[in-house]
Hints:
By secondary structure, the chain is of the alpha/beta class. Helices cover 34% and strands 19% of the residues.
Amino acid sequence: PVETVRAALEAGVKILGENYPEEAVGKIQAIGTTDAEWHMIGHVQSRKADLIPTNFSLMHSLDSVKLATRLNRFAAQTGRVLPALLEFNVDEEESKFGWSAVDESRWSELLVEVDMVLKLQNVTVRGLMTMPPLFDDPERTRPYFQKLHRLHDFLARNFPAADWSELSMGTSADFEAAVEEGATLVRVGTAIVGPRPPKRQE
């Protein structure tokens, strides 16, 4: 809620992560100018891509060439270059978004589409993101963080001119393991402001 966001800002939070574009834009407009950055960390449907370039400093969840192309177009229309992270699915859950990177022996198949995104003029890749399974024991999540780091190194070798400086992985449940495995951005909203309130039924 907006009042929670305001309290976080007053406490010194500098980066705010949001899951839902339309809901986030309402908060951004309600709060107005702030020194904090807004990051889009949730899945974005292509039809809502126009909301991202004008409202967010970083897109964590760029998960397809189709979405990248739309973001590029809207960013160009507003005269912006949108920094983004490529989202990869490193586990077996088919419901997860992102390019499938489960099978390391097939990573070379990802290169054509990654190259297409890297060539866009108004979207600039800054690294990778993943959403591994949630476990009670963070050590069970560690292999997924390690896999994303290996993928990061693989892409950096294949596209050495690109910027691969960010690794967005880890949540309130497992961020210590994520940081130990190379995370530069962790998504710890629950640890800071508590669980998300249930959505009210209309």
